[in-house]
Specification:
Two copies of one chain form a homodimer. Chain A is of the alpha+beta class. The first copy, chain A, folds into three domains: 7-77 and 104-182 and 286-361, FAD/NAD(P)-binding domain, CATH 3.50.50; 184-282, D-Amino Acid Oxidase, Chain A, domain 2, CATH 3.30.9; 371-446, no CATH class. The first copy, chain A, contains 14 helices and 20 strands. Chain A has an eight-stranded mixed β-sheet. Chain A is globular and about 70 Å long. The interface between A and B is medium-sized, with 15 and 15 residues. Strand 13 of chain A pairs antiparallel with strand 13 (180-195) of chain B. Chains A, B: InterPro entries: FAD-bd, FAD/NAD-bd_sf, Kynurenine_monooxygenase.
Chain lengths: 447, 447
């Protein structure tokens, strides 16, 4: 049993689409990638990106096809958070053990590099060709200038929908009976902003940190680029007291930055300009099932499971889809029906888990950071983890620095949370928090 | 401030669309109802109906426009359940107090009558005219033979999407940012079957009962029609040991009915024929938000909130939407922006509540009826309610025989459930279930 040569279409030339193309091309398949947008290598990137944090799962998927070292050249390791808290001096939190880091990469720079690599391996890219419809049973796709205009049709053996949260391929699957689907938007939007490099090309803030300005229900973050700039993201409610809706003029914007983010004042002109030039984008959790149609069509990445970005795992989860899919191809050769069935069954619970973890991180950041009991709980967990590192691995580490299933990390986190609920009921926990009593109670509950 | 005359389009000539037309016509508006299907008055009904159970909320909405007595002529009151349990003689359960009944109506018969009534009041119906697209800000709609073909356009002041669970109008709203949406199918399907009348036109089973054959994870129900027949529904898993998938031949079907439904054997030929002639349909819970667009477009009924049929409230909930909408029109006159805002804000929590209650009824029926502790709990509740009818109103009665908000019924049910969770923990509850101890415990927990 071997891998017979297939004619494969991939819809979407984003990160997941281009990595999947590189993987599938290794088997000698004919690969065509369609994208409705122009070639990202020829255009300025759109200004609606959140910089990416590549972590363990992403690197593992790149390593498998031998391109991790190539990509590390365009990534900057961040081994700590830099916390810009009002009324406190800047302080740092290491992410984990020595050598544990997440890597900052510009989405545009990475995407361009991945398309280059895919093209060099023989993948054909068709940019500015809009897919409007897919006939699922025959794996035929239809493209054209407009939805109502003339269409061209292409017949393939397999079609992969890597066309993101608003996937056309999924849209077609969604209109079938017994297709479960949900899209849930959060009330917080985001906007990309830039902190420019110093005149000498160096970074204005520490380069090896993930910079966070937490402000309750809004937040500003900054991640470094190779050129000395930082790609920043302002997360803020769409409506309400401090909100996108309420910043209407340049004066409003300047006052907003001055009040809440005084140490980025040096870039106030640029930030204000970005604020009105760049769009305010919405964030959605999208779930669906099934992810595949017979042995013909499969969704990979955001098209199957779009998540809010608060765990930095969107791309990593998509790359892990590809890693798992590839293992199943190796094991099941030409049995695409089996491959697709096992793929969706193994990935769905993990996609749901990282969606839940990401949503919880959003809720924690936006709703709980002002709650003193929540902060105390986090302090107790940290204290205990320092005393017993082998007994209390933070969920963040399980998600970010391991390749164990997301679903296990979620279950483990729920177990920790149940224990902490008990611990927080100890009388006078506020004063006893770092005592032997609390330590022993956690040990007892763990065993 | 008065009601200025509007040009209004209603998409969908089903029960909700035709009742809404009757309501709006009373204000003198120009009303056109579009439906992609042929006029139901000229065609045999499709064989995918579950007979309707009109209850309090439905009658109230009909009464408001003076058509309840007219509709009662085509309805049969059911004051009890007739339980066909294997190994037990047939027994009856009254629905509630004296005069409390649900009313069986054939969907086709009702829909034809409603369209007649709407037409008589001056509503224009355009059948077999397919709406493919709606421009939300301008309330313009586009119709044509095919999606890709030539389209005609119509401009209105207001558009109402009453086009059901797979609404085209909602489909357009769904592609906007920040529109929350979910569709969740259950693993159980249904099929319509018929029990024919006796030769003399009388009913083969008691006419004033809702007949139920509960069989664990599948079930058969029958509701009477005026012509002496019963419209029956078989609910059964799509896949698994006893499932639609596993009944492949006429012999399979005959064996299935003989084994599980011996007292419908007299109709075995007809049931078997129906089984293979009629489609197996899926059931979905569909939620979305917002339901309206500015002062231009609103979703009403299943298009806004499709629910599984296990509480018999789908049509009733849709009619209640219209009743509430009408009250808001009376209060707010021409302020359609305000009307739509208040309409969705007041109805959304109630739609979510009846969706939850309906889904729970499905879970109870399909998963819990074999659990002796669950059955004991229901027996205790019934026993207590008989002793203290004013202290323990069954949720079913609150939903079916009152017009208090669904959301209140759900909250009340949750409170009852929490009490029963405590009660079921009483040691030896199996023997004590009808004792003073249990009665006093419930009284204590209630106060």
């Amino acid at each position: 049993m071997s891998h017979s040569k297939k004619k494969i279409a991939i819809i979407g030339s984003g990160l997941v689409g281009s990595l999947l193309a590189i993987y599938l091309r290794k088997y000698g398949h004919d690969i065509t990638v369609f994208d409705r947008r122009p070639d990202i290598r020829n255009v300025k990137f759109s200004g609606r990106s959140i910089n990416l944090a590549m972590s363990n799962r992403g690197w593992k998927a790149l390593h498998e096809v031998g391109i991790d070292q190539e990509i590390k050249k365009i990534a900057i390791p961040l081994n700590k958070r830099a916390m810009h808290v009002i009324g406190k001096p800047l302080y740092f939190q290491n992410y984990g053990k020595e050598n544990e880091a997440i890597w900052s990469i510009s989405r545009g720079v990475l995407n361009r590099r991945m398309i280059d690599l895919a093209e060099a391996s023989g993948v054909i890219f068709k940019f500015e060709e809009k897919v409007w419809d897919v006939d699922l049973p025959s794996a035929e796709l239809f493209t054209g200038e407009t939805e109502k205009g003339e269409w061209k049709s292409y017949k393939y053996d397999l079609i992969f929908g890597c066309d993101g949260a608003f996937s056309r391929v999924r849209h077609k699957m969604q209109r079938r009976s017994r297709f479960d689907y949900s899209q849930d938007f959060i009330d917080v939007g985001y906007k990309e902003l830039t902190i420019l490099p110093n005149a000498d090309g160096t970074h204005k803030l520490d380069k090896n940190s993930f910079h966070i300005w937490p402000r309750g229900n809004f937040m500003f973050i900054a991640m470094p680029n190779l050129d000395g700039s930082f790609t920043c993201t302002l997360f803020m409610p769409f409506e309400g007291e401090v909100s996108f809706e309420n910043i209407k003029t340049k004066e409003d914007a300047k006052e907003f930055f001055t009040t809440y983010f005084p140490n980025v004042m040096h870039d106030i002109e640029n930030l204000t300009q970005d604020f009105f030039n760049n769009p305010t984008s919405a964030m959605v959790t999208m779930k669906c099932y099934p992810w595949t149609y017979w042995d013909k069509v499969a969704l990979v990445g955001d098209s199957a499971h779009a998540i809010v970005p608060f765990y930095g795992q969107g791309m990593n989860a998509g790359f892990e889809d590809i890693f798992v899919l590839n293992k199943l191809i190796q094991e099941n050769k030409d049995n695409w029906g089996t491959i697709f069935k096992k793929y969706q069954e193994s990935r769905k619970p993990n996609a749901d888990a990282i969606a839940e973890l990401s949503y919880r991180n959003f809720m924690e950041m936006s709703h709980k950071t002002a709650d003193p009991m929540f902060l105390l709980q986090k302090k107790i967990e940290k204290h205990f983890a320092a005393l017993h590192p082998e007994k209390w691995i933070p969920v963040y580490s399980r998600v970010t620095f391991s390749d164990k299933p997301y679903a296990d990390a979620l279950a483990y986190g729920d177990k920790q949370e149940a224990i902490m609920q008990q611990v927080m009921k100890i009388p006078n926990i506020e004063t006893l928090w770092n005592s032997k009593i609390v330590e022993d109670k956690i040990l007892e509950l763990l065993s």
